[in-house]
Design a protein that fits this description.
The protein has a seven-stranded mixed beta sheet, sandwiched between helices. A three-stranded antiparallel beta sheet has the order 9-10-12, with no helix packed on it. The chain has a two-stranded parallel sheet with strand order 1-11. The protein is built from 13 helices and twelve strands. The longest helix is centred in the C-terminal third of the chain and has 38 residues. It is of the alpha/beta class. Helix content is 43%, strand content 12%. Helix 4 links the parallel strand 3 and strand 4. The two termini are 28 Å apart. The chain binds pyridoxal-5'-phosphate. Pyridoxal-5'-phosphate binds next to helix 3 and helix 7.
């Protein structure tokens, strides 16, 4: 199957690399190979200058200090760095991690790891049927044991359901108790401009491959800079990344990440409009085809391009197997597709037979509006065919 034979509707999973970003990275690689830590000689100095320029550009966009931008291998590592780093730093006082019930697995599993292996206590903040944190219960959880070193991790926009967190209310509660507020902004940065200051968070993470940038790099932004972030490094060795992540940095990826962010800042609005148009066309087509389907959580204009739905009586695996040319997903990509159902859908209180059969369709530049219509027609034809047999 060639690329032109499939319809890509899995943009929450990843996105194609933008040509302009690819060009910037290739140009860098063609002309540079130096190790940025060897800045005393010409080759190293060139690499160090490029790395610093990328860091500076990103710090300006996110309103973070220069020494508060830490490059990692992805958002998964950045989330691990924060949660485990906090748990280790405060191990002697038994750190507490309060996390949302629908967090990405890189938070969810890491928090459980911290409880099992690092002596932390992990508390899950429940959500309502739309996936929104219950503020009353959140406030009560926060008020308990408030003398303990506590880190709160609440994601901004969910990657499986179109849910936006009430982050300003959460920030006010965290400020009251002086808790570290960490926010996974991987999906929200795609959809809205944001900064550490606007969100009033201590730390956030971003993943460039979600907005047409390279894979293999993540950005951890720290409001108080790396040294005063209150976390212990997980990777030891050299002093790279302000002592938070030892190892020779991949400068081409850092340069690509900065280029992707600059590109995205200019065209986010246009992209979001395209996501809305694709999503609407997909929904309208399902309606025209008169197919029986339901949302798990209704669409949300602030979470453009994320559809979470199920077809009564239809097994989600069967849809994926029957239509491999339509690239959609059951939940998040990181489960590897093996999970019976996602913890996100189960946190919404969906019955198991529904939770196990949710499909996520996520829109972006990898598909045209016409392709979205065609995908909805093909899915409808399959559902119709099945209900006849
Ligand atoms: N957080 C969210 C909300 C995501 O959607 C993803 C990607 O699936 C991640 C974290 C992990 O990102 P990465 O692929 O950069 O490790």
């Amino acid at each position: 199957m060639s690329a032109s034979d499939f319809i890509y509707l899995d943009h929450c999973g990843t996105t194609p690399l933008a040509d302009c970003v690819n060009k910037v990275m290739q140009q860098y690689e063609a002309n540079n190979f130096g190790n940025p830590s060897a800045f005393h000689h010409h080759s190293g100095e060139r690499a160090a200058t490029s790395l610093a320029a990328a860091r500076q550009q990103i710090s300006e966009i996110l309103q973070a200090p220069f020494d508060g931008i830490v490059f990692t291998s992805g958002a998964t590592e950045a989330n691990n760095c924060i949660l485990q780093g906090f748990a280790i730093k405060h191990q002697h006082r038994r750190a507490r991690l309060i996390i949302g019930a629908t967090e990405h697995r890189s938070i969810f599993e890491t928090a459980h790891f911290c409880q099992k292996h690092l002596g932390a206590e992990t508390v899950i903040a429940p959500v309502n049927a739309r996936g929104i944190i219950d503020l009353q219960q959140f406030q009560e959880i926060c008020a308990r044991d408030s003398h303990r070193p506590t880190l709160v991790a609440i994601m901004h926009i969910n990657n499986e359901i179109p849910t936006l967190a009430p982050l300003s209310e959460i920030a006010i509660i965290c400020e009251k108790f002086d808790y570290h507020l960490h926010c996974d902004t991987v999906q929200s940065y795609v959809r809205q401009p944001l900064s550490l200051l606007d969100l009033r968070v201590h730390s956030l993470v971003i993943s460039p491959h979600k907005f047409y940038g390279p894979k293999g790099i993540g950005i951890l932004a720290l409001r108080d800079g790396a040294k005063d972030a209150g976390i212990t490094s997980l990777i030891h060795g050299g002093e790279q990344e302000f002592g938070l992540r030892a190892g020779t940095p991949n400068v081409a990826l850092a340069v690509g990440a900065a280029a992707a962010m600059q590109y995205h800042e200019q065209r986010r609005q246009q992209l979001v409009q395209h996501m809305h148009a694709c999503q609407q066309t997909f929904i309208d087509t399902l309606a025209t085809e008169n197919i029986n389907w339901n949302y798990t959580v209704p669409t949300n204009t602030q979470c453009a391009g994320i559809l979470s739905l199920w077809f009564p009586g239809v097994n989600a695996f069967d849809v994926l197997a029957a239509l491999p040319e339509i690239c959609i997903n059951r939940g998040s990509s990181c489960s590897g597709g093996g999970e019976k159902y996602s913890h996100v859908h189960s946190a919404l209180g969906l019955p198991i037979e529904v939770a196990a059969n949710v499909l996520r369709v996520s829109f972006g530049d990898g598909a045209t509006v016409a392709q979205c219509q065609s995908a909805a027609q093909k899915i409808s034809a399959y559902i119709r065919e099945r209900s006849r047999s």
